[in-house]
Amino acid sequence: AGQGRTERGGWVRTLNIDGSVADPVEDAYDHSCVLLALAHAHMSGHPDALRLGEETFAFLDAHLEDSRMTGFLETSDGAEERRSNPHMHLLEAFLAWHKATGERAYLRRAARIIDLFRSHFFDAESWTIGEYFDKGWKPAAGEKGSWTEPGHHFEWASLLVDFAARSGQSELTAFARKLYASAIANGLNRATGLAYGAVSRQGLPLDTVSRSWPQAEAIKAAIALDGSGGPDLKPEIEARVGRLFRWHIDPAPLGLWIDRIDERGRSLATEVPASIFYHLVYALTQYLDGTAQKG
Length: 295
Description:
The structure is a single chain. Helix 8 (212-225) runs parallel beside helix 10 (276-294). This protein has ten helices and eleven strands. The protein is mainly α.
């Protein structure tokens, strides 16, 4: 196995600075990120990306797929609870590979995630997506079973619109609109206009910190839904971009961002997570592409 790889062809969770393995766990979320990166590397002409992608898909199927074929395990040992979030990122990766290759096999993979979304993740009564489940995809006990994240509602919304366009399942746009609507109605701090970290299915705040990535995902969702047969969201897009800059980007040193803001608008940031860069780049390049087309 190469650096960062496991003997079975998967990828380790983390490395130390010197390149040695810090955490060897084979995690579904991490593999979704690897697959997304490899899809874009392939689109950029990297000579090894396709091979590495095929090897990673083979590992995913052999060691992370649920034996009942109801989604994927959290880790290859299968011992932990189930979450919707790795499946959302796998959907994102599958759609990226479909874009990179045009092969419908990747769209079929995406369709299986969509089936889980319809049957288990989406709650039709509250227009929300659960985060934590047991092995049978029943909501987890206690507060975890009621935990929903506005940022993930926004992410799912844009991915559903993307899948709907690729597959022809146009009815999924209605699900996307419901997720966006519930996140806007119940997931925002009314003082700052920023999305909370988490709210209950009833709309009660569970995590009142506003991180930067949900604000970026709100921009992406509004862009995806604009022109999809619903209301004109262009003013909403501008407002969301404005809030991202006002609270997270403009107050930070040039080139950095403030990741965490409390419910009164005060910075809680003690670090600048590199993982946020992906959210910012995606959202702002989509915004710039849209404004360039209008120009």
